[in-house]
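Sample pair:
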Amino acid sequence: MNKEGNTNKSATYETKADKKNYIIIILCVLAIISGAVAGLVAWNNNKEKTDQNEQISKEEVENIESKENNVNEENENMNNNEEGKNPVVTMKIKNYGTVKIELYPDIAPNTVKNFISLINEKYYDGLTFHRIIDGFMIQGGDKSGTGSGQTDFTIPGEFSENDFANNLTHSKGVISMARRDYTYYGKIKEGYDSAATQFFIMLEDTPSLDGLYASFGKVISGMDIIERIGKVKTDSNDRPKETVIIESMTVDTFGKDYGEPERLEPFDISQL
């Protein structure tokens, strides 16, 4: 009996030891599995961060490339615009301010050439607006300051009544060339080709002038100044009682040379 009891007791100890070993083994396995899982999770997180960083880097590169492309396109557009821009006149009027006028060489090429040539010669600097009619137009560009000054040249009239296609109507802000009217003397053509230096700027739409005068540009900035000049008090001959002086005129052709205008011998009315 005692011997058998000892044997059973020994067997019991061995079983407990085995169980303990099993538990240790299981715990080790679980620890290994946990470590593996943790490592896998960490690797996956690192991979996601790497992928995100790569995505961000890719997006940054794409953004940089897009910005560079936009800059290149803008520069190209600016260059194209520079080539395609119409001439712009800057007219400074004493005590009033600055007016900008866009010229239309596609509409009245020779008239524009003549105007640019006169501006470059500083012809208009110091001249006045000698004729002002509120609700109609303001007129300037005469050396004598009266509107009756003579010139040593004229230019062909670029308007429909003179067999030249010009679709720029005499709307508010449009600049057009003044000329003489020799109809009374039976010299209609001579009158059509009598413009030289004098110009006028419309204060209101006046369709009755369309086809009879060479319109060639339009005010793009400072129309309020033109309107203020239109309110200057005048005498019975439309002469302003307050002198309105053109301090200077310059023109930006954006690098394009428009060449010399065609000019004619002026008609001498005194020979009639």
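The CA atoms of residues 173 and 223 lie 7 Å apart.
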